Amino acid sequence: MEVSIRPLVAPGAPAGTMRAWVAVLGYGDLPDLAWSVDGAAVAAQPVRPLRPAYPDAASLRVATGVVDLTGLPANGRTRTVRVVATSPATPAGPVPPVACELAMRAVPAELPRDGTSFNLLLVSCFYRGGDKAGRCGVVARGLTGLDRPDLVLTVGDQVYLDQPPLIGSFDDDRLAATFAQKYRDNFVGTDGYAAVLRTAPVAAIPDDHEYWNNFPHPSPMTLQSLVHRGDIADNPWRRAAKAMYDAFQLASADAYSYRFDVAPLSFFMMDNRTFRGTDGKHTLQDADLQLYRDWVDDVVARRLVPVLVTGPSLLQPGKSWWGRLLDRSFADYGDYGDVMDGLTTLARHGRGALALTGDVHYGRVVDARIFGTAPEAGTPFGSIREVISSPTALVWGSEHQRPGTAPTRFAPGAAAVKLDTVTAWPGRDDIRGDHVALLRFTRTAGGVALEVQYRMIREVHGPGRGTYALPPVVLPT
What we know:
alpha+beta; Immunoglobulin-like; 2 domains; seven-stranded mixed beta sheet; 8 helices; 31% strand; globular
């Protein structure tokens, strides 16, 4: 039996709450868990009870759960969290307990007031075969001292369930076992990508490779998407993939899109992949779209700094009919306009948004000034800064892309605005390779200063400096 834990963001929980994900692997009967913090026993509050990741596959022996460790001072201290798993005795005798411990911190309720920075690590697109040496873990462990992350955002493709392609039978047990092994390889342990996920509390959303390429649309990379023609919710691949996403990445039961604040920053984590419709009309559940609209209104009313987090880029044009067959953009869906209308609303009220995304296999920072239609035509009334971090480890068969050109207006069907876009990074340089992005937020007069640093894991083209830092910009409060 093996036990693993890692820290998660705890949306809506009291200040000082540490949320922990726990996995028990290779058990006989489900064990009892006993938690302690800094050596003192604590009563963990279950958020998702420990349960099999895929009950229909009885032989899988993978169980996960989420607990809150509460009642701790909200002072930002690092604490040693320990869990001990004790299984029921078997006819052969007692089963030795198994323990795991990890140094953890809660996400602060607000930005520091002592001049230090709040640090966010932005990652997406990790293919284990592209980083067999575990270089991303080495980079993550090197972020210490003033560069130590306080938060990790994983914005899609934390696993590639469709790569390498599966052939043969597609029964539930086989799919569940295959997917569980891919998650175990990436999420359990202390090295490689697992080291990234243990660096600080994680807030996660998925993208298509948590399911299959261009999900939910048929893809030649995933035979099951071609041969199964029933309701997408009944697709065996989708069913097993979603069960594993829920088990390994979901921080709160049934909360796919959600918000949390580190005042004055307000984050909206938008899952616009799990519930996409095959008709191309929507990416979000109605309830999640309403949650987003409520967030926009609250950000305006309280003069917060909005941070919208999605898997796919927001500033990416729609695809041709041929391109949509291979990999659709967010802009190809009907509710893209609803989401961009929210950003326009923020801009009209002086709440220029920060967008954090992944997906596209290049890093890029774009500043886009928004111009309205008449009577505002010709007068900028807000801006968007989009930071893309992709990939952490490139999937096989792909190439590191040159940054695409940002559009000069939102896609058709979106808010009627013109964009004045400038690529702040890499600009005219050709810098490509595996990387993560470290964002540093510091209180300053009139707002929050943001500095973006790209930390290269494997630089395949460029001057080879390893770290690329952009000049700070101020996000107004």
